[in-house]
Amino acid sequence: ISYSSLNAYEAKAEGKPTPSLRKVVFRPRTLIYTALWSAVGLGMLALLLVRDTLEVNVLHDRNPQYVQLADGGVRNGYTIKLLNMEQKERRVLLAIADLDDALMTVAGDDLWPSRTREFVMPADKVLSLHVFITTPKSALKPGKTPFRISVLDLTGIEQAHYGAAFHAPEK
């Protein structure tokens, strides 16, 4: 049993010479396919080399959306996931911005409330945090207030941001 194409089989049957391997392999269609697949492969490699290695995902607590405190302030809860996609440990700074006088506390952390918090992220892992953000009554805006949660790599130049919303009573 021999393996051959239908064209080569018919050419042999008619006594004509069979096409050379060079003609079969280096046809225009084969060259175009090779160029296209090479371009796709190079594009994927380029995207892999320039991808972000630090990411932040924020999920607002669903129930209750906010808690009215005894002093008139409002507290919102968030689950924040910090993704370290590098093969080394890194120090990062978690910060809140665009929310006047707001302070953050991290569940299980006994530090004072602040606008920033430093963490050490393990290599190639996700750091999951439950964060409470509190706004005093004097700085409270009714309804939803947009603000930004940022993560800054303290050893490099990479940073990631997430636009979130702070919920308060409508008055």
Topology overview:
Elements: H1 6-14, H2 21-25, H3 28-49, E1 54-60, E2 67-68, E3 74-84, E4 90-97, E5 103-106, E6 116-121, E7 126-135, E8 143-153, E9 159-168
Antiparallel strand pairs: 1-3, 2-3, 3-7, 4-6, 4-8, 5-7, 8-9
Structure description:
- By secondary structure, this protein is α+β, with helices and mostly antiparallel strands.
- The protein is built from three helices and nine strands.
- It has helices at residues 6-14, 21-25, 28-49; strands at 54-60, 67-68, 74-84, 90-97, 103-106, 116-121, 126-135, 143-153, 159-168.
- The mean pLDDT is 91.
Summarize the helix and strand pattern as letters: HHHEEEEEEEEE
Helix content: 10-25%
For the termini, the CA-CA separation is 86 Å
Rg result: 30 Å
Q: Outline the biggest β-sheet.
A: 5 strands, antiparallel
Report strand %.
35-45%
User: Which class do the helix and strand fractions yield?
Assistant: alpha+beta
Number of helices: 3
C-alpha geometry? elongated
Report low-confidence residues grouped into runs of 5 or more. none
Explain briefly what this protein structure is.
With 171 residues, the protein is of the alpha+beta class.
Features:
single chain, 9 strands, alpha+beta, 171 residues
